[in-house]
Fold these 3 entries.
Entry 1:
Amino acid sequence: MADSTQTLSGPPQAAKKPHSFTRHGVTVEDDYAWLRDAGYPEVTDKDVLAHLEAENRWFEHCMAGQQGKIDALFQEMRARIKEADKSVPQKDGDYLCWIEFEEGAEYKKWWRRPVAGGPDELILDEVALAAGKDYFNLGAISTSADGRLLAYSVDDNGSERFTARIKDLTTGELLADEIPGTLSALVWAANDKALVYSLANEQWRTDNARLHWLGQPLDSDVELYHEDDEGFRVGSSLSSNEQWLLIGTSDHETSECRMVRADDPLGEQILVKPREKGVEYDVDEREGVLYIHTNDTHENFRLATAPLADPGTWTTLIAGSDEFYLTGAELFRDFYVTEGRKTVGAGAGLDRIEVRYYDDPARVEPIVFPEASYSAGLANNPEWHVTSLRLTYESMVSPSSVYDYDVAARTLEVLKVQEIPSGYDASLYATERLEIPARDGTMVPVSVVYRRDRATTNGGGAGPLHLYGYGAYGISIDPGFSTTRLSLVDRGFAYAIAHIRGGDDLGRAWYKAGKLEQRTNTFNDFVDCARGLVARGFTEAGRISISGGSAGGELMGAVINSDPALFGAVVAHVPFVDVLNTMLDDSLPLTPGEWPEWGNPIEDKAAFEQILGYSPYDQVKAQAYPPLMVTAGLNDPRVTYWEPAKWVAKLREVKTDGNELILKTNMGAGHGGKSGRFESLKETAEEFAFILWQLQV
């Protein structure tokens, strides 16, 4: 082992190899740059692999004493899952379709039954496909309009490069067609004679939409669209009425869409409107009218219409508003549905679903739900002509429920409530939606759940609290239900979600206030939420565990640099912590498309200085840090394995405490960790065991 030495009496110490670079007149030292294999995405460097394996051995050594707790947590988490379970069947054309888990199975099976009557048909068996594989992930799945063919794609190593296959459902046989390297939906076109897909190029970018004719060699596939901007990604879908193939291209702030007849995909394409920096839009069509969801005139989006013959002339149907964030619209034959969230006042940040009518714009019928804090949305509604809508609903104390909403009667019918075999009594738990002031006076929502007898469990004192956050890309974290979370809550924890800026929980302005030059608002909000929960008596400093993944892992790195004493245990999953180096490397898969989110430090000195000022790896300092558990995936194309590896190496070098610091790299998995419903539970059990150990619960 040339570059990492280890005895199990101490952690591995990565070798320091002097390396530096100068940009905008600033020289940055990076002594652990060698942990990036020069041959990436192939990782074969023996010194790199030896170091990662040494870290894994240290992880196992440190966690060995917690194995009993890990096993107990895993068993109680598993006992809350109904192992033999299936979804509510949903009508799609001539069939009722559902998915089903069998007792003990890691993966599911896809079934259908003719509406007119007949036997159940197993159309895809994930259990069989995953057999003998350490990792399995089903990407896209799509049945042809005539119900005869099934297209699906599989990733078996976590690299998110999926191989697409086509199955003849009348014979059960696979067609000879095989498309490796896809990263997209699989869209049927040309009356089920062709598939539209996107390939991931060498940089893992989908810069294309391609048409594959069934039975023809791949080299005869036709490129329907090619994107020249390296920051944009291409994806395809069908319009709600399935008459149009929609080819979209976008980055984090700008989009553009083309339409072509689905039955004639090689026909003339219609460019809806040329891209304009900062303007996002998506489009659907009904009876010659386009419906465009766009932020062109208001950051919280409006819904506009345009005639198909003049697609770029948009007339407002629903105006953008400071008070309501319109997140989307879904068309059906006789009505359409809008989804969004209030951004101010009572119920701010909570989902709102409304049924609206083409012939009467003033007629708006909101769907009313029973709780004050919840997460709800449209489920899979595949048909064009429907009289009821399939919905999902949950809250932090209410297990996930599936409803049908009768549009004419305006009534909800419960079809299924998530079963918890080991038992669950919602009356034992309480949830609150708080507002906590950030240091600049902004009120930040926090969702909290806890047992009503928590004070008794904690001997009358302030108990432990777990705080979760993400805060990036305009992704909201909904106050939903979690069975695994109960393993902390039932041990006296309060569990809180900080709806910090950088997400779009309170609208587009909330997102913008946590990106680019305002990025540090996200970190400050999280710290201020933690302090506010202490001030409200939920916990005390040092009794707070925190977790986040990916960009949420960046959040973890930033807040332990700024306020390490506030937190008693930290878990950072696949953390995006080497922000400056990644944003300076335009050869990495995601970097050009990420510049609208973080800034471009290659060209912009101010962005360089801003990122350098908060990048967790660059800001590690000689101070005491809280106990820290870090995860990585060797095949992760989103947050490369060397980011957490370098961060941990630097922390080991300079931190002044004796607290635990452990890194686990999944050597056969990617961004999402292990696959399989029980295998992934084991990783959650490890995380919770670490937290309980460090907080001495």
Entry 2:
Amino acid sequence: MKFETIKKTVITAIMLPFIFMVAESVQLMRLSFEQYGTLESDRRVAALLATGGAIASTEIPAEMNATHAFLRDPGPETAAELRRTRLAVDGARQAFFDRLPLSGTFSSGINAQLTKLRSAYSRIVGLRSAVDDGRYDSQADVGYVYRQAALRQLGVGDSFSALIHDPLLLRKSNELMSILLTYHGELIVDYIGGHYLKRSGFSTMSHEQLLQGDVTRRLGTDRLRFHTSVPVIRGIIDFLNRPSEKRADIYTQAMMSGVLRPTPELRQMWTVGEQARLAFLRQNILAVTHDLEETGQRMSAEAQKHLMIVLSLVLALALLAAVVGGLGVKGIRLLDRLTREREALVEELRSASETDLLTGLYNRRGFEAAAAAMLDGNHDGPVAIVLFDLDHFKMINDKHGHDVGDLVLRHVAEIAKRTFHSIDLIVRHGGEEFLALLPELDREEAALVAERVRVAVEEARIPLPCGETLAVTASFGCAARPRSAKGDQFEDLIKKADLALYAAKASGRNCVATSAIIGQRRHKPA
């Protein structure tokens, strides 16, 4: 009996360290596989960004220029160049879509952007047919279709960059997208500005496109300023701050104001300056794109090397497991128990999610946490609540089914996210009812925001799977208080917004109603 006790003690002394080694090795292997999978996914996304950036900055502008050249001089050389650029765009576009994972792996927002990108390419195909049929003359402005396609391509790339997990790759992808935005804006400003200075083809739409180009490049340069520690970005900022570049920006503003007087000298200076600026940006786009691809490949290779080392260690442990024999069964049981505990923990964390799965908005739990953080003791400004409810939503479900009802809820949620301010908190309050918390706004300002959302909902046309479209309306109730208060007053604010919503419903629906501001004290009459 004593021997048996000693034997059990010795076996236990041998087994315990081995069990811990196996458990730690399995955990390390799991983490290594996850790290490798994440980095490999990041590398693929980075390659997609590089491909999309090349399409938007090189292939599409090249076909646009070739199309303009062919319309001006439809000869054999221009026709051959046009065919070459078309093939380049088609090949790059096909490579981009071939690299995409299955569409089900993306969010509804990214899938919607991909649909718009395909539509933009379809418009290019239609434009090609019109050009080949001779429906455009030498003065026609076909650039708008190409510029919109390039902008859609950049928008998809910007959305994809948010899928990257690695901080270094994410930073480099943001740098690339910032340069691409700046370059795309410059392309628009260069083309429309040239028409202005030639006094030809400049219309109200041209003015709007010039404004769009200026806004796009300013957005890109503003984003670049977040990365001034990077030598390439710092070089771009320094280049754009040169006096000659500042003068070009002043000319652009004067064009948008209509006060710039075109002269041949000014046109020549504009053309030379813009070509130099675009060439400089293209050079940096190539450098950053190459760096992004190299970084992704290097990090993926390092992760693969690390994974091989981990697999070698696991193999050594497997040989050790053969020595200790039957003790491995106990190790497997322990790993099974740890796995079940981990799965239970993951399920518990999943149930604590703070996001409404249908709309992507906050659910009530997430909203309460975000509102509490926003309205802490340091907040003493006004706060407004907008409560809105879809009109006759039950009729939509009864007539079209709950799938269409869910589609309507998602569409309205997207409208709300686009139309409310970025700092506003939006929550699916229940069913077809939504709630928005608007910090730093009083009752009148909140009502103006609510009216803007109401109009956006009313004007939207929701495409149905059957091919038809559906229009919906919503009723809004607004309430506000001048300063932060305790939780009971905040709940009272929601109740007042709810009463205002009922008033909007009673007033015929599809309108905005407001309540009195909480916090105003009523003085007794003297």
Entry 3:
Amino acid sequence: MAAPKRGRSASAQSKPGRSLALILIAIVALTGGMFASGNTTPRLGIDLAGGTSITLQAENEPGQPNAINKTNMDTAVAIMNRRVNGLGVSETEVQTQGSKNIIVNIPKGTNSAEARKQVGTTAKLYFRPVLAQEASVGATASASPSASASGSSSASPSTSPSSSASSSQKATGSSSASPSSSATSQGRAVTDALKAGSTASSSASASSSASPSATSSADASASASASAAASKLEAEYTALDCSKTTQRATAGKSAKPSDTTVACGKIDDVWYKYVLGPARVDGTDVKKAQAVFDTQGASGWQVQMTFTGSGSKKFADVTGELAKNASQPTNEFGIVLDGEVVSSPTVSQSITGGSAEISGSFTQTEAQSLANVLSYGALPLSFRTESVTTVTAALGGQQLHAGLLAGAIGLALVIIYLVAFYRGLSIVAIPSLLVSAVLTYTIMSLLGPAIHFALNLPAVCGAIVAIGITADSFIVFFERIRDEIREGRTLRPAVERAWPRARRTILVSDFVSFLAAAVLFIVTVGKVQGFAFTLGLTTVLDVVVVFFFTKPLMTLLARRKFFASGHKWSGLDPKGLGAKAPLRRTRRPAGPVAGPVDPKEA
């Protein structure tokens, strides 16, 4: 039984080159990938690369004077975090300051400009029926936008108007009618729509009242109120010029979902003004949104939305009602995002499939941004930008220089200790540290574009701490080998017997470090997560280096005479370690000798 066991042990010891070749291939592949991708340096965080700091101040919603509270502020922070992470902007910090302010720190990056735009976007989405629409003052009367949205069901009924339908849909300011006459006709449409709504409301009130005089009084009051509201809205609509930035900034922004309101929308570089009815579907009814490219038609980039169960029913009901209207624009619905109409498709039939599309002159970035804000929901509060400050990397650069200097000093002290105390074994330890450093650097460089990892000052600290973790693993292994030599064993069997015991200790130690890093990463936010991530990464790499480089290299060196003979500079000198003398077996006689043996008999 002993012979096969020795054979397997010899086989395992004779192939350490495989492990060394494997880790060498991994280093070459990672380094080649780093240079091939063009990312030869790790991506830096805001404290090292600079960026933008934005201060947002919360504002109370109309009719909700107590909306600014801790719950809504925390919800807004969480939504902003998800939005910027959805764009791939890592190391972005979003935190509250006081009771009304939120501070957003965004590092430099390809998507940082879009992130600045999205953090303060409320992203309140409503589907409202269109009561009136026309090209705003200053727009060319012949301008005619193409279809800007479509809804689809499982049978794929298109709600996008054809080119001719689109012309009639948007050409309410056509050459056959002057802007003033168009505004007048649209104003009458607004008035009629409001009066129709008030009549239905007054009828409901009358049916619930037992007194005819009370009913008559309610009808008169409702009619007067509706007329006043219609006149006010008509005047607001007539005076609205959506080509002016100042008017667009306030048009319909303070309207409640149940209000009839005015709004602006831009289609094919032409601004249109709208009168919109009460919201029938809102953003909370959207289950999922994603940006897709229309390969079948000429719509380009679109945003596909999937509704919830209740949202599907609402959407089917409103599109069914709009489809009964034969004339435009009353057979259209406006898709309104933060008070601005992003599209107003024509509806020809009820859409029951639970999905819809928003299309138009979207770029890929615009479509992805819209899908992103719709997916993560609306902010519970409106925010006003108080300040936007550019953060330079000068201070961070000084701190980085100091941190790298401290790391270099620490590494030099570790190397001096290894050389002085372990002597020849430093030939194993120092290359292992270099392999760990190369793997850490290349992986960090590749993680920048892959998962948007950004290196900040706490992450640098995590990498410096990892030097001690890696050195500790070497020391555990070396001390186990020395223990075996003290017991009287030669080097080669000492290495193989020490490895299982050292391996257990190293794995337990690294598991505790990784667990601490994982918990720290989960329960913290911002820059501290960078420290936790780097600590966890280097801990995993420590296991890889010890198993695939340190142990095989030690096995190879144990075959060399310098180490195997226990040279005093090898760090494994038996005399210097106080080794016991090797145990030797002696052959004993089988029994006592009775007397002298006759030479002749022998």
